From TrEMBL:
Pfam families: HRDC (PF00570), UvrD-helicase (PF00580), UvrD_C (PF13361). The lineage of its organism: Bacteria, Bacillati, Actinomycetota, Actinomycetes, Kitasatosporales. This is DNA 3'-5' helicase. The keyword Protein transport does not apply. Belongs to the helicase family. UvrD subfamily. Its EC number is 5.6.2.4. One of its GO terms (molecular function) is helicase activity. SMART domains: HRDC (SM00341). InterPro entries: DExx_box_DNA_helicase_dom_sf, DNA_helicase_UvrD-like_C, DNA_helicase_UvrD/REP, HRDC-like_sf, HRDC_dom, HRDC_dom_sf, P-loop_NTPase, UvrD-like_ATP-bd. Signal peptide: none annotated. It is an enzyme of class 5 (isomerase). The keyword Isomerase applies.
Length: 750
């Protein structure tokens, strides 16, 4: 059962540096700043981590999970970390493996739900799970045709997006027109027409016996809601949940999460409302912003130490949010840079877009000449349609570039061909191509040389240069792979490298290609570069012209904030006054830079953002104290053995046990066991009695902290135990024990 529910994390963890895991639980905490350490040691939920850009949120939550596992608080198979992309899940798995927390599941919402759906569908519904529809565009086109609607090819993507939005926000076809009116959403066509297409699409799926990705979440949640026995099995499997990027959760995802955690599972969420930029897909920061309302006892930790960006970049980012309005702005975090000072952001106005692109390309060349790698430079824009002029400008200067979101690395023809060649060389017992190469990277170069790879790049740009860059990335990856294995004391041969490539392809974790990145601001989320050029920052483009409502405008501001916080050191912001040379200079720079760029007046003062730190929630009505890592009361070491955790001291450290109290407790326990007709250990084990005699608790809360004293035993025996601890003699118990000779009745080992 456990294997089917958990699935396989895979043989490859993309971010594993092949180094040795920390020596013990306490070593997991080494190197964390105070707020990150607070996250890592807050092992019992609910916990809410508000993490600003570049503050090390992934580091904090992976160390939290690893510390929980290494300290014995978590069983790794009972932990599920959930995020939104396969790449982010792979990063988590790699870091957890490196920290010695093997066995923890890190998955996307869809991946985790699909595994459960596949396992439970035969029991809940019967038969095979319906086939999963990989892409819904074609089916949407058929649905539109069946409704008699003539749809341009370019409109299909918008129609598909509307259907996805409806499903994740749990809007049925009949309610779509009203929902559009209520939310102020800009529908791509008449809402009544879209509702008909949506309804026909759903019917077509049923007729074909297929489901889409949103159905995976919907059906899994429905099974858990309708079948309590199945829900209990899932909840028994997973007791600790971590949700990354919680500001992007949709109502449908929250519905599933509620089912997963309904059995009292521990929940930790992490997010930043100031990076909410996907509301058009149904994502909402409401659950993050109201987490404390839903969980009054939550511990809230704020991460504001920015390790990514220079003070100058952070100052601009803080300035952007200082002018923000709305609910998300009330929860903004004021970042504090931990890096050395860098250059000031540059603001440049150009007469037209071609001039802006050409000048940007020349500035990029200067950075390259100054030693900045092409893969550490990005040009970011609001819409994908802006990329063409920058592609041309970079090509004209012979500068390599890569389009983020274009063809996947491992799907490129030259990469697929290289993979076949490398596999053949790895299988060969003695390959003359690689026989004379002493290291792995040399062997890879030798194999790729048969397809024209050279040590130096070809002149110019275009397809030839792109092919070379892909192969060069495979060579660099071989160098990194070999160096990592060497640090871990392991060998790296061609067969191991081929396995690495296969696993990376499965996880879609491509190596860095040495080219300037061209990407939309949305696609840049989660990435970072040494130098970032934010281009096309004019009214009508950012904010985009169809952003009408206050909340839509604020999301555009957050989009610019995300762009700014991608930069580590160099940041350039530019705009053009006209689209074409000689055109009317009618554009003006984005309003979001008013008061921030030179000559634009004074910035409007905003409320101070949240500072870093920890806020503890109100106590629950339950008297049970939260369970967490146990440290030795004598030497302070984190304890991992069961008996040591019970006694709260190392086996070799001196005991402070009250021997007389221990004997009184044993006598009382023997009498209780006799009355119940049960073994003495059913009341309390020896180790629990020893822990009580060492702690000598004064009240129920202190008693509940002792391992082995659960809520039921606290209710049943708490008053008697506390009376004994207070020195009171329970005459009837002692008399019964003396009469029956029950002292010293054997109990089970602790």
């Amino acid at each position: 059962m456990q294997e089917e529910l958990s699935g396989m994390s895979g043989p490859y963890d993309p971010y594993d540096s092949y180094g040795a895991a920390p020596a013990g639980a306490d070593a997991v905490l080494a190197g964390l700043d105070p707020e990150q350490r607070a996250v890592a040691t807050a092992l019992t939920g609910p916990v809410c981590v508000l993490a600003g850009a570049g503050t090390g949120k992934t580091r904090a939550i992976t160390h939290r999970i690893a510390y929980g596992v290494r300290s014995g608080v978590y069983q790794p198979q009972q932990v599920l970390a959930v995020t939104f992309t396969a790449r982010a899940a792979g990063e988590m798995r790699g870091r957890l493996r490196q920290l010695g927390a093997d066995g923890v599941q890190a998955r996307t919402f869809h991946s985790a739900a699909l595994r459960q759906l596949q396992y439970f569908w035969p029991r809940a519904v019967g038969g095979e799970v319906p086939r999963l529809l990989e892409r819904k565009v074609q089916l949407v086109a058929e649905a539109a045709a069946r409704t008699g609607l003539r749809v341009q090819r370019t409109e299909l993507r918008d129609l598909t997006g509307e259907i996805e939005w409806c499903k994740v926000t749990q809007i049925v076809p009949d309610d779509y027109p009203a929902a559009v009116a209520k939310t102020g959403r800009e529908a791509p066509r008449d809402p009544a027409e879209i509702a008909r297409v949506y309804a026909t699409y759903e019917q077509t799926k049923r007729d074909r016996g297929v489901i889409d990705f949103e159905d995976v979440l919907l059906l899994t949640a429905a099974i858990l809601e309708d079948r309590p026995e199945i829900a209990e099995r899932v909840r028994a499997q997973y007791r600790h949940f971590t949700v990354d990027e919680y500001q992007d959760v949709s109502p449908l995802q929250q519905r599933l999460l509620d089912q997963w955690t309904a059995g009292g599972a521990s929940l930790c969420v992490v997010g930043d409302a100031s990076q909410t930029i996907y509301s058009f897909t149904g994502a909402t920061p409401e659950y993050l912003l109201h987490f404390r309302t839903r969980h009054p006892d939550a511990t809230v930790v704020k991460l504001v130490r920015d390790y990514r960006s220079s003070p100058q970049v952070v100052h601009l980012a803080n300035g952007l949010l200082a002018q923000a309005r709305g609910q998300a702005a009330q929860h903004r975090l004021e970042l504090v840079s931990q890096r050395e000072a860098g250059p000031e952001p540059e603001y440049t106005e150009y007469p037209d877009e071609p001039t802006e692109a050409e000048s940007t390309a020349h500035r990029i060349r200067k950075l390259l000449d100054g030693g900045v790698r092409a893969s550490e430079i990005a040009v970011l824009f609001r819409t994908n349609g802006q990329s063409e002029v920058y592609e041309q400008a970079l090509s004209d200067l012979g500068l390599p570039y890569q389009l983020k979101g274009a063809e996947r690395f491992f799907e490129r023809p030259e990469v697929r061909e290289a993979g076949v060649l490398l596999k053949g060389a790895a299988r060969a017992a003695s390959d003359p191509l690689t026989a004379d190469e002493p290291d792995l990277a040399g062997q890879v170069r030798a194999v790729l040389a048969t397809r024209g790879f050279t040590a130096t790049p070809p002149a110019g740009s275009g397809a030839v240069r792109e092919r070379w860059e892909s192969l060069a990335a495979l060579v660099r990856l071989a160098e990194e792979f070999e160096a990592g294995r060497r640090r871990a004391g392991e060998s790296a041969d061609l067969a191991a490298y081929v396995a690495e490539l296969d696993a990376r392809a499965a996880a879609q974790h491509a190596p860095a290609v040495e080219g300037v990145t061209l990407a939309s601001l949305h696609a840049a989320k989660g990435l970072e570069w040494d130098a970032v050029f934010l281009v096309g920052l004019s009214e009508g483009t950012l904010p985009i012209i169809y952003a009408k409502t206050d909340e839509q405008i604020e999301e555009e501001r957050r989009l610019l904030y995300v762009g700014v916080t991608r930069a580590r050191q160099h940041l350039s912001l530019s705009w053009a006054l006209s689209r074409s040379p000689g055109g009317r200079a009618s554009r003006r720079p984005t309003r979001f830079l008013d008061g921030l760029r030179p000559g634009s007046g004074t910035a409007r003062a905003g409320s101070r953002g949240g500072r870093g730190g920890v806020e503890h929630g109100e106590s629950r009505a339950s008297r049970r104290a939260p369970r967490g890592p146990v440290t030795c009361r004598v030497c302070g070491r984190t304890l991992t053995e069961a008996v040591e955790r019970k006694l709260r001291r190392c086996e070799g450290c001196p005991s402070s046990m009250d021997e007389a109290l221990y004997e009184r407790l044993r006598a009382w326990r023997a009498a209780q066991a006799k009355k119940q007709g049960a073994p003495a250990y059913v009341v309390f084990t020896d180790a629990t009695l020893m822990a009580i005699a060492e702690d000598v608790p004064a009240d129920e809360r202190e008693l509940s902290r002792i391992s082995g004293v659960g809520a039921m035993k606290l209710d049943k025996y708490g008053a008697a135990v506390l009376s004994l601890c207070a020195g009171e003699e329970l005459v009837d118990v002692v008399a019964d024990e003396a009469a029956d000779g029950l002292v010293g009745e054997p109990t089970e080992p602790a």
